[in-house]
Design brief:
This protein has about 400 residues and is α/β, with parallel strands linked by helices. It has 15 helices and 17 strands. The structure holds adenosine-5'-diphosphate and magnesium ion. Magnesium ion binds next to helix 13.
């Protein structure tokens, strides 16, 4: 188990002012919350604290106001969205520090929930200025961090404040940290990783970290082309970063040294144009013509990869295997996602996935709900895959 305190350790919170860092950076449309996924994610923590009689003070950023007040990025705009999900009214407090914050908090009663104004209206937030963190800490008695998606940033409301008040992980943060620990921290072996997506260049650090941690590294998507090119395959017109062939070779060497097996596709689906439902061919990787592009992993490779997953106990997945937004190049991603989902349902696989397009691909395959855990954290998930320390998480460590 990772080493951090949770709401189980927080003790009696009756009448205590609990500052809860949440992710309220929600998409808006026509002045209303367009997608309340992030608000819903924070509900277990908010409800639990409110039910126990805490004064719940929600801290969050909204957009990129760059340290200045901007009415279009006021968190007052999301109050109705939070109240809708919570099922009762939510107060708005027009500042997160100073007298403006304290006066608003002073009128609250145990069980009340309030949203404090955008932390990024103060330049000290993103600078992690000690004076700003001191001022934040003065507003509450306890701190709960429930925003894993912001934990890769050492900001006042994610890191600074955690050193100034007793600090706990909220329920969503706890679930995320436990899932990530089960996937890469202390996983049950054998462990497989699927890394796909467009480019090697965006995931070099992910690949470097994974070869030292997993038993099987499955490389798909556009980035597989660079690895195929490094192995001497002519990938035709495919997306390929020829300048990264040396990097790919270094990753092959590191995998060899660590005992990690790298799996590349040996059959692929190719087309002459990148458009919906063009004429395609399924060929061995050595048969790609000069005017063709690799747009998906082939069926024989998918079958072999399914066998790899059947022999693994843990899977971590980031990046689609093909250009899944354009039919029929979603085929391999959907098929392997369904295999992973079935193995998870049967109880033989712990499956953790993350990444913007990966979540979209799993939803498209209809299996996101069958994975053990799907992270919507974006940047924080990728930095965790890269093995980087997450300041917001480290600050919670006991
Ligand atoms: P995530 O957001 O989950 O981290 P990425 O952004 O790295 O994933 O990669 C997703 C993109 O990779 C998708 O837009 C997909 O179309 C593209 N992609 C996957 N395979 C290929 C391919 N063979 N050729 C071109 N693009 C590809
Ligand atoms: Mg993406």
């Amino acid at each position: 188990m990772p080493n951090f305190k949770t709401l189980d350790d927080i003790g009696d919170v009756t009448g205590k002012k609990v500052l809860v860092r949440v992710d309220l950076n929600v998409p808006m449309a026509g002045g209303a919350v367009a997608d309340d996924t992030r608000i819903r994610a924070a509900m277990p923590t908010i409800r639990e604290l409110s039910d126990k009689g805490a004064i719940v003070l929600l801290l969050a950023h909204f957009g990129r106001p760059k340290g200045a007040k901007n009415p279009t990025q006021s968190l007052s705009l999301v109050i109705d969205g939070v109240a809708d999900v919570l099922g009762h009214s939510v107060m708005f407090i027009p500042d997160c520090i100073g007298e403006g914050a304290k006066a608003g908090v002073a009128v609250l009663a145990p069980g009340d929930v309030a949203v404090l104004e955008n932390t990024r209206f103060h330049a000290g937030e993103e600078k992690n200025d000690p004076a700003f963190a001191d001022a934040l800490a003065e507003v509450g008695d306890l701190y709960v961090d429930d925003a894993f998606s912001a934990a890769h940033r050492a900001h006042g409301s994610t890191e600074g404040i955690a050193h100034r008040l007793p600090a706990y992980a909220g329920r969503a943060m706890e679930a995320e940290l436990n899932a990530l620990d089960a996937a890469l921290g202390n996983p049950v072996h054998p462990v497989a990783a699927v890394v796909g997506g467009a480019k090697v260049s965006s995931k070099i650090d992910v690949l470097r970290n994974l070869v030292g941690r997993v038993d099987h590294l499955i490389i798909g998507g556009g980035m597989a082309n660079t690895f195929l090119a490094a192995r001497g395959v002519d990938v035709g017109k495919s997306l390929c970063e020829h300048d990264l062939v040396d990097t790919a070779n270094a990753i092959f060497d590191a995998a060899d040294a660590a005992g990690c097996t790298i799996h590349l596709p040996y059959d692929v689906v190719v087309a002459k144009e990148f458009a919906p439902n063009p004429p395609t061919r399924t060929v061995n990787v050595h048969e790609v013509a000069a005017d063709e592009m690799i747009l998906d992993v082939g069926p024989a490779a998918v079958e072999a990869l399914a066998d790899v997953l059947k022999n693994c106990r843990t899977l971590v997945w980031n990046g689609p295997l093909g250009a899944f937004e354009t039919p029929p190049f979603d085929t391999a991603t959907v098929a392997l996602a369904k295999t992973a989902a079935a193995l998870t349902r049967e109880g033989s696989l712990i499956s953790v996935a993350g990444g913007g397009d990966t979540v979209a691909a799993l939803n498209h395959a209809g299996v996101a709900g069958d994975f053990t855990f799907v992270s919507t954290a974006g940047g924080a998930f990728l930095e965790w895959m890269e093995g980087k320390p997450l300041p917001g998480v480290d600050a919670l460590k006991a």
